[in-house]
Amino acid sequence: MASSFGHLFRITTWGESHGGGVGVVVDGCPPRLALTEADIQPELDRRRPGQSSIVTPRRESDTVQILSGTFEGRTLGTPICLWVRNEDARPEAYTEMASKFRPSHADYTYQAKYGIRNWQGGGRSSARETIGRVAAGAIARKILHERFGVEVLAYVSQVQRLKVSIDPDKVKRADVERNIVRCPHQPMAERMIRLIERVRRAGDSVGGIVEGVARGVPPGWGEPVFDRLEADLAKAMLSLPAARGFDYGSGFSSVLMTGTEHNDALRARGGRVFTKTNRSGGIQGGISNGETIYFRVAFKPVATVMHEQETVDAQFRNTTLKGRGRHDPCVLPRAVPIVEAMTALVLVDHAMRQQAQCGG
Amino acid sequence: MASSFGHLFRITTWGESHGGGVGVVVDGCPPRLALTEADIQPELDRRRPGQSSIVTPRRESDTVQILSGTFEGRTLGTPICLWVRNEDARPEAYTEMASKFRPSHADYTYQAKYGIRNWQGGGRSSARETIGRVAAGAIARKILHERFGVEVLAYVSQVQRLKVSIDPDKVKRADVERNIVRCPHQPMAERMIRLIERVRRAGDSVGGIVEGVARGVPPGWGEPVFDRLEADLAKAMLSLPAARGFDYGSGFSSVLMTGTEHNDALRARGGRVFTKTNRSGGIQGGISNGETIYFRVAFKPVATVMHEQETVDAQFRNTTLKGRGRHDPCVLPRAVPIVEAMTALVLVDHAMRQQAQCGG
Amino acid sequence: MASSFGHLFRITTWGESHGGGVGVVVDGCPPRLALTEADIQPELDRRRPGQSSIVTPRRESDTVQILSGTFEGRTLGTPICLWVRNEDARPEAYTEMASKFRPSHADYTYQAKYGIRNWQGGGRSSARETIGRVAAGAIARKILHERFGVEVLAYVSQVQRLKVSIDPDKVKRADVERNIVRCPHQPMAERMIRLIERVRRAGDSVGGIVEGVARGVPPGWGEPVFDRLEADLAKAMLSLPAARGFDYGSGFSSVLMTGTEHNDALRARGGRVFTKTNRSGGIQGGISNGETIYFRVAFKPVATVMHEQETVDAQFRNTTLKGRGRHDPCVLPRAVPIVEAMTALVLVDHAMRQQAQCGG
Amino acid sequence: MASSFGHLFRITTWGESHGGGVGVVVDGCPPRLALTEADIQPELDRRRPGQSSIVTPRRESDTVQILSGTFEGRTLGTPICLWVRNEDARPEAYTEMASKFRPSHADYTYQAKYGIRNWQGGGRSSARETIGRVAAGAIARKILHERFGVEVLAYVSQVQRLKVSIDPDKVKRADVERNIVRCPHQPMAERMIRLIERVRRAGDSVGGIVEGVARGVPPGWGEPVFDRLEADLAKAMLSLPAARGFDYGSGFSSVLMTGTEHNDALRARGGRVFTKTNRSGGIQGGISNGETIYFRVAFKPVATVMHEQETVDAQFRNTTLKGRGRHDPCVLPRAVPIVEAMTALVLVDHAMRQQAQCGG
Predict the structure, then answer these.
(1) In B, which residues are within 8 Å of C359 by CB distance?
(2) Which of A349, B114, D136, D341 could form a disulfide with D11 if both were Cys (CB 3.0 to 4.6 A apart)?
(3) Which residues of chain B have pLDDT under 50?
């Protein structure tokens, strides 16, 4: 188990989908930051089940409690423990999973690795684990905003075949939050919502693409050669359940261009260097260059579907299994705050690393 | 600077493209492994400049020397320092770079971050740094082969618009090595070679896709929730110069399927569990499931082109710069052993982590 | 803040003496270990305030709750979060500390470092933080006992000038627990108890020495050159509040001998190597040699005394302060389980590291 | 093997006493620091064999070479690889060690751990490994001096029974370097030298105590709860070959005082807080308080003596072994620069950590 992420702003998540709850310890947070539960809860609410008609109808308030690390509304510089109690646990909904592995879930691999697993709701492999990430990310985002003027946001740009091109320099969070699918292009959002509703009625699921953006990152963040900014972002995103791919800037489509077409010309104005195009996605040589950072994360369709599927039981006998219960037909709307959280966690860690070695 | 990678099989690379050389320290290698320079040199030869007509004609033998960590041809369990001396350094070829930033290179960002840079040949941001990775990767691959029966390989599947579909279960290293572009499909390889030669003559460059494969990985490798196997592979790949994207298994194309179409049915035979399809790319819930692991890495076209481009000088004045000297028109053939090396480094580290917590 | 300890069996403690409680996250625990609160609580009871007439009379049950990481009474291999709620918090007892720094406490240095501090009961610098260590140590000790046959124990060998020589090969935990000062030599224990009671009545405090012992450690644990077994033990012990010194084996007294006198002759019998003497304290070259490991930890007298002392207030004006409230006149009896916990944490981490690199 | 030390200013040493040489990679060094071999060599010269009549007469120049990380005499912020070639290797002097374990050396434990060892001169367990530490420490010391005004020094205060009390606030490096035993009290130094010469003639060895001092450390360095400044110093010192104990401030003798006697009264003058006494050794609650940091390290007598001793051979048969060759009768004079180096490494790492979290 590797439950920690980050070097200087370091988080450790804990908890299973059923049991005492889920949470996170944040170690290394700068002191004297104003922080109460009210800074964190709104992000958890964006991630929460039951928030709209296109996500799982499970009912959990996901109320966060700060157990340590603050005093009189400010951070102490000591570890911040955040806890969200499990509420709507229905282990009985999972009894069939005690003896059968769900296809394309982590049931079989957890069993193979650990020789034991909490089969209730996926246990540790449940997306519920991301609550700790979102809670910690809310703190990271606050630091980025207050101390560095950096803005982080994400949005849905594609659901199955429905896709739209969004300008990372101009997209606004208000537009993202305007609809329940979190796509800032309203007409496309409506089509996406209809698609997801149709897929849900069919007992099936769909995937798509979330794009992440960071604006205002100064030149100099990123630690070559291994902790390049894009490498840490890639790791952060691929550590998310259901994530299948990551690219940044021109990404996979860069391979279709020649070098002459692809290069970002450098220009200077008023003592500041900028690039005329931004195919580099704000990162060159693993280090931010001051332009907008943007990237894409592919999420596969949710593995739980309401159709009977071939699988294997705990005694390694062939059998079948049909999904039931309350599930997301599409993780993307709830993945948006998670992608934002991971982005903020990567960036604040790199801000502190830059400060440590090069003095900010 | 973050020059270390891995937790238990931990490498630290060092060196710039000009200076005393480049190298790597490998700490945590299991003891009593047979190891001499002859185990490492062939991998460096696959990465070497001047190896064929479609790579840079620079002439460096890249001869590796083991400075520590072995005794009478076996590893001691102590740190292994590997060193490759710089030979064909021509700092004078780079004098213009002393005062100008090359577009889409790391010149400007290194200067912004550190306030200083070795402008000779890109210094630390040079792809020459990957020599240490390939050297260490040769050791990792040997351990994987001898102790775990795991085979790692990579190949070129796309150069610009020329692409071919390769079966990761069947591709053979001999076929990859049969041609200088390292594409196992011979007719396509010939077309790719002609394309690269044409691009080179035009003073331009192209990118493409390298696919990586690991066969024989047992179920249970990978450390959720942050060091999921795919997350560490993504980080490893995105830490490579010119890498722009990563996906594994069904990857970005997974978003076009429904869950019902996408899921890998589980089946059992002879006490062993397998999946009927392998859209999961051998990894479920961040842990290997025993199937073939496969993934793609997108490399952008090389930034150095022989045309005049807009850029900025060290005093932040607008100017132009035209690439010269000896450069790769396409990094892909040489990227193949590098992708293999990083894959092997990730896997051997996870093998050891699994052994540590779960006893192998 | 550096709230994590260990590499493979990694703990992260959190919490202040006043607030939501204190706890620990244990990441990397082997799966399938039988574990309930009943395995942990007895160790917390040995550390608890109010357990005897010579420790602080504060009343806290220090009841531990497992929030994650187990299922049906067994560890899952996932992070184990342990939580102890704060009960007998009396912030009003500390109001004077809001504006004055207690001499030889951490009040001034926390303020200097973080620019903020929780002045209630010492906040994070309170010895209450060690609850998380003791709870995690109980798990570590269980693994050592069940999987490696290793026994860890500690005892008080000196209180101020009262000291006794104990044979680390023969001392028994039952004898240690026979009296409230935790000195296995009963007559000396009685004298120590009387001394502590006298010191308490005088409103003063005393320090002393705790000795730690590990028996049954196989040859081969310890990771030169930096994570030598003695180096990690030294760090573990000096990370404890009030610890002032550490030595192992012949320790500081080794300097009085010549090499000829000091060396431990090696002998073999029945295919097993042993030393005739054990001045090396079971560790040679940073690696266990199979003999009993033993070491000493010096604890200074508790800083809180009931006499008026010169100090400084928050505005850096000279003033005086007199300790009040409920304090330990001597930390040693309660330090015994803490020293044991840290010893167990170091050893289990090294057992896992040895397994990872050398296969156990 | 754990060959790395430090978090932000991170060193990785490599090399055995026989083979290609010994060295270190320093990762995380701040950029733009003036640095050439001339900054490092003097410290290696203080550590070098053959420097005086009371150390081993082995002849090695220990000439350092910077292989990477600098450009035009300044650090780049990239990893600095330092290399010292092995010169006076006489493997034939160790042939008996190929088949016999030297008592109180690391021969047996390395064999037990790794199942293999380089028996030539102790291989990795040789004190020659500390060359990398001293070389890296020279850089750390330069940063401390130039950027923080911190002065680090060490000296011999005791050789066997000959001891002297030195004031850590007043001792000067010039006085330490005035004599070959590196004791700043000249009359005592002469007695120590005579003792060591006598011991050497007798074919024996002696140990003693080195004291380390850091002056000018500002309040706020140190990372509770685990990486307390004294904990990291303890680990650094106990990671040295032959080190047996560590204490700081009042250390082991603190146990003889009462709290009232022991506490350091706080006083303020001119907006600056100081302590009237310094029994805390400059560290309170794990964090520097602005006073002089001082500590002691006990070194056991060297294990190699010229007398026949009982031991065991590689087949686990009882035999005898008599030391020969060129050895130090007392490591202390050469340990002084090593203790200084480790102190500087700990401090510069903590300076950077403080800068990262709290902004300097």
Answers:
(1) 30, 355
(2) D136
(3) none
- Would you tell me how many other CB atoms lie within 10 Å of the CB of residue D282? 26
**Residue-number span of the structural domain to which B101 is assigned:** 4-358
Q: What is the pLDDT of residues D283-321, one digit of tens each?
A: 999 999 999 999 999 999 999 999 999 999 999 999 999
* Terminal C-alpha separation, chain C: 33
Mean pLDDT on D348-358 = 97
Angle between helices B229-238 and B332-358 (to 10 degrees): 150
Distance (Å) from the C-alpha of residue A335 to the closest C-alpha of chain B?
14
Tell me if D289 and C249 make a contact (CB, 8 A cut-off).
no
E strands within A58-137? 64-66, 70-71, 74-75, 80-84
| Of the candidate ranges A57-71, B91-105, D60-74, D197-211, the one whose mean pLDDT is the lowest | B91-105
pLDDT of residue B1: 81
Residues of chain B by 3-state class (helix, strand, coil), percent to 5: 35, 25, 40
Instruction: Name which of A1, A31, A77 is nearest C79 (Cβ-Cβ).
Output: A1
pLDDT score, position A89 = 67
Residues of chain C scoring pLDDT < 70: 88-89, 91, 360
Q: Is the pLDDT of residue D159 over 90?
A: yes
Count: domains in chain B: 1
DSSP string, A234-271: HHHHHTSTTEEEEEETTGGGGGGSBHHHH---EEEETT
CB-facing half-sphere around the CA of C220: CA atoms within 13 A: 22
Model confidence at D89, pLDDT cuts 50, 70, 90, reads: low
How many angstroms away from the CA of C72 is the closest CA of chain D?
32
Alpha carbon distance D98, D93 (integer Å)? 10
CATH number, domain with residue D321: 3.60.150.10
Residues B57-68 as b or e (16 or more Cβ within 10 Å = b): ebebebebebbb
**In whole angstroms, what is the distance from residue C76 CA to residue A114 CA?**
7
Rounded to whole angstroms, the Cα distance separating B66 from B68 reads: 6
What sign for the dihedral angle of Cα A280, A281, A284, A289?
positive
Q: What is the least distance, in Å, from the CA of D352 to any CA of chain A?
A: 5
- Whose structure tokens read 């300044």? D74
- The Cα B131–Cα A266 span in angstroms is 30
Q: What secondary structure does DSSP assign to B102-160, as a single string?
A: PTTSSHHHHHHHHS----GGGGGGSGGGHHHHHHHHHHHHHHIIIII--EEEEEEEEET
Best mutation target, A139, A227, A357, to test chain D (most D CBs within 10 A):
A357
Dihedral sign (CA D115, D119, D123, D127): positive
ipTM summary value: 0.98
